[in-house]
Amino acid sequence: MLTIADAFDRLFATVKPLDPVSLALGQSLGLTLAEDISSTADSPPFDKSLMDGYAIRSTDLNHGTATLEVVEVITAGMVPTRPIESGQTSQIMTGAPLPIGADIVIKIEDTARDGDLVRVTPQGSQTNIVLRGTSVRSGDVVLRAGTKLNGSRIGALAELGRAQVNVHRRPTVAILATGDELVPVDQEPGPGQIRNSNESMLVAQIQAAGAIAVPLGIARDNRIDLRAKIEQGLQCDMLVLSGGVSAGTLDLVPSELAAAGITEVFHKVEMKPGKPVWFGLRRVGTTANYVFGLPGNPVSSLVCCELFVRTALKRLMGEPALRPQAVPAALEHPHSARADRPTYHPARLTWTPTGPVVTLVPWHGSSDLCGTVAANAMALLPGAARQYGVGDCLETFAW
Amino acid sequence: MLTIADAFDRLFATVKPLDPVSLALGQSLGLTLAEDISSTADSPPFDKSLMDGYAIRSTDLNHGTATLEVVEVITAGMVPTRPIESGQTSQIMTGAPLPIGADIVIKIEDTARDGDLVRVTPQGSQTNIVLRGTSVRSGDVVLRAGTKLNGSRIGALAELGRAQVNVHRRPTVAILATGDELVPVDQEPGPGQIRNSNESMLVAQIQAAGAIAVPLGIARDNRIDLRAKIEQGLQCDMLVLSGGVSAGTLDLVPSELAAAGITEVFHKVEMKPGKPVWFGLRRVGTTANYVFGLPGNPVSSLVCCELFVRTALKRLMGEPALRPQAVPAALEHPHSARADRPTYHPARLTWTPTGPVVTLVPWHGSSDLCGTVAANAMALLPGAARQYGVGDCLETFAW
Fold this sequence. Notes:
Two copies of one chain form a homodimer.
Chain A: H1 4-14, E1 20-24, E2 37-38, E3 48-49, E4 53-56, E5 66-74, E6 88-92, E7 104-107, E8 111-114, E9 117-120, E10 129-130, E11 141-143, H2 151-159, E12 164-168, E13 172-178, E14 182-183, E15 194-195, H3 197-208, E16 212-219, H4 223-233, E17 238-242, H5 253-259, E18 263-267, E19 278-284, E20 287-294, H6 298-316, E21 327-331, E22 335-337, E23 343-352, E24 355-360, E25 377-381, E26 386-388, E27 393-398
Parallel strand pairs in A: 5-6, 13-16, 13-17, 14-15, 17-20, 21-24
Antiparallel strand pairs in A: 1-12, 2-11, 3-10, 4-6, 4-7, 5-9, 8-9, 18-19, 19-20, 21-27, 22-26, 23-24, 23-25, 25-27
Helix pairs in contact in A: 3-6
């Protein structure tokens, strides 16, 4: 059976970033640049005061103090009209351009004003100015393609005048739960029935990954319904099914996907929960449809979505081909692992002054979704049955 | 001057969670429950198979094997009609109810079918069933008020039939940049002018915190414009201004906020960048308006928003009164710190198999927003000038 590492290798060999689109900067949070961004000007564009105070010639300071004539008030947004000669100063506001001749700003707290005169006595040696081009020179590449946009980077793009940016767009992801036993969330289950919790869960996980979730409801365990809803789901960049991929009589999903022209990339991964996970694609010209078949037990779907669907979505959105980031955390209690394959166990990751620690939460297996609500992460128990001790380091993945 | 810890104490003494609202489950991602959630039924609601296979009486296994008559096929969603007597079995699908009499499921891989008979030879001792109520008993509290909703918790709420939930709503946050030197992002700055990068940056930071950003554009440095736009901003739960809170002639913000009935909670915090940060509120009946005045230099605004605005927003949204989570990370290079107060330095946080490490990125101070684009975090250098060595532990805060 495929190892987890092999499954990721096949995933990354298959999934390619979506084409770039031009978006308004305000729509770009969490998206990844599809172009290098260069500056067309120096930043700051002029020598600038970092403080409210007085702009002076530093050579006027005699034994650290001077009394100077105030010739102008320079507010942010205006252009100084008076050069500073020896014995002169201009009052200046934070962000305002430095007047010609001045090379230092004395902050207002270190000054005493008296009519047209001001006595300046700087504490410390800071110039309180920033020279033109200190931050960026015209022509510099400030942000590289592949950079994910957060607040500071969006601010920098705004400073550079980029009201539109080329980014990889958000994928659309159809979500289809399969099974005759399922009823919608707002209905009371009859005998042998359960609510379709996987749809709500997968919608939330896919939205949290930054993609656009398109829930398709429930497909019943027959070929006609399944085929129709699979075709509908293939309108999206990705289709995520839950249920119908294990080995039973009614597990029609793999054969119906094959009939829809989807080629299997992998089926079954040596992991717990989630072993029956299925992944494939259909490529028509330059367009690809990616399809995941997740096992129907809710925690199996949860874990496979966190691992594989989320990673595929990040890659579609232009992020690097990297497996989920593990936080190495110290186990807080002994644990006796009985599984015969790598297990992702619901866990509580907390931070202490000396680093992250992890507690495995009580959990009754792949159908026990309510057991996972105390968790904020999953910890990887890597395989063979063994006894873990306090302080053992586990790879932990935040949800 | 106020310490950072004191500022957080005052913030938490001031900011109270917003009133609960009832939302559709699909709208609740990232929000915090405002009610305890109990189960009204056992989960699972019936004894259930975890595998595709054959349901049998375990006492029928003789030396670990048995040949049994198949009396029924039980698919998920149906109700078994035939009890299992000794010598009998029903074929069963994952998620289907266990028939009366059976106490174990042999997975299909461990069976050989021959007409109406099947030979079962289980490998291992697993029962492959989950008993009614294993996960949750009717009446159990499954999720507590104060829990932030992610995929697994939303899935659990769906399983419990909660199509609507009471959560703390998303705050609305008006964003107002002040300054005569500012031009909109899509305009070319004239002499002495710069683009309004803070608005785009703060909108993104506030959206990333889960709140609804309402950008108000630029207020000019005069009382009439400022007063009108402050009144407009007070339609929102929170108003975030940038600029106009330091000590200069044109820093009208504190006095205009006072005129609008906003009471100062704190002004100036012993930190760098961001020292002039201002925070206050107006309470009318049960309604509160919270106001932040952030320093206009972009990195000062960035840092104050990450620290104080984001923390206040989390609290408004019902999260616990906790300061931002520090990741203790090992410094990768020596660093000579010259500041006289605690400094949040743009930094690159990365994960190694032995834990998090941090690099301080080259940075020219509070006006150098472009210098922060290489950062994904900020590291706290706690105060006095000193020499840091490789491996020194710094509190790091992911952006």
